[in-house]
UniProtKB/TrEMBL annotation:
Keywords of the record: Cell membrane, Membrane, Transmembrane, Transmembrane helix, Transport
Family: Belongs to the binding-protein-dependent transport system permease family.
Lipid bilayer topology: Multi-pass membrane protein
Lineage, uppermost ranks: Bacteria, Pseudomonadati, Pseudomonadota, Alphaproteobacteria, Rhodospirillales
Stated name of the protein: ABC transporter permease
Record domain ABC transmembrane type-1: where: 65-245
Transmembrane segments: 12-31, 72-94, 106-125, 131-150, 194-215, 227-245
Highest taxon, organism lineage: Bacteria
Length: 260
């Protein structure tokens, strides 16, 4: 099972993953039950679950969840809609790459956190500021990932289109894009994780609602059970969206499984 060429069935894969989470949960429970760490620094699983239950009953948990999911969905969608055509363009044409890629590289190395006070000045503390932070944090990375995905399309495929005297737009739409799309989808899945990170950063600094805002509020009152609960919730949300995109990848590109 642990050899380089070994395969793991879907059920066994899930069982191994669940086992890892169970072991970590037991270690957490054991450390807190033995009193090695005080609850202020590491609350027990029971304390965290109880706190999440209280927040769910009060309606705060659902409100925070809805707000954050709305922000991440729209912010990531805006970033992707801009990144896809630009990434495809600079990945296909060398001249456009020379014009755009150095600028994208220049901006993407600027720390996103440094833009938080600027975005507050530009747009205030509303949802537009959260969308802008998500955009800055993901767009430039997405552009370069999509560019590399397009560049990975075998040159022979493009030469075949030229041999068939296909126009440029048909080569792009019928050869380059379908060939690169599986890798582009994976790049989108990876960048979605960054989007979650930057959303929480924006909500930690300037927000009146959302998961990050609740963590900040809990920090002021030393409510570590709330902080741990929301961190676990963010992990569950991230894992769920990641697995959903993996599932969609398998459904959209079934032919890749046949090729393997």
């Amino acid at each position: 099972m642990f050899s380089l060429t070994a395969t793991v069935s879907g059920r066994r894969f899930i069982a191994i993953a669940i086992l890892v989470f169970l072991v970590l949960g037991l270690l957490w429970w054991g450390v807190t039950e033995t009193g090695l760490v005080t609850p202020l620094f590491l609350p027990s699983p029971a304390m965290v679950m109880l706190r999440l239950q209280e927040l769910a009953v009060s309606g705060k948990l659902l409100d925070d969840l809805i707000v954050s999911v709305y922000r991440i969905s729209l912010g990531f969608l805006i970033s992707t809609l801009f990144a896809l055509p630009i990434g495809i363009l600079i990945g296909s044409y060398r001249a456009w790459e020379a014009a755009i890629e150095p600028l994208v590289d220049f901006i993407r190395y600027m720390p996103v956190v440094a833009f938080v006070p600027l975005t507050i000045l530009w747009t205030g503390t509303g949802d537009a500021q959260k969308f802008l932070i998500i955009f800055i944090g993901t767009f430039f990375q997405q552009v370069l990932l999509v560019m590399d995905n397009v560049k990975s399309v075998p040159r022979d495929f493009i030469n075949l289109g030229r041999t068939l005297q296909m126009p440029e737009w048909r080569i792009l739409s019928r050869i380059i894009l379908p060939s690169a799309m599986p890798a582009i989808w994976d790049s989108m899945r990876i960048s979605l994780g960054w989007a979650w990170t930057w959303l929480v950063v924006a909500e930690l600094v300037a927000a009146t609602s959302g998961l990050g805002y609740r963590i900040t509020t809990a920090q002021r009152f030393f409510q570590t059970d709330t902080i741990f609960g929301y961190l676990l919730l963010l992990g569950v949300l991230g894992l769920a969206t990641d697995q959903a995109m993996k599932w969609a990848h398998r459904r959209l590109f079934r032919y890749l499984r046949v090729q393997r």
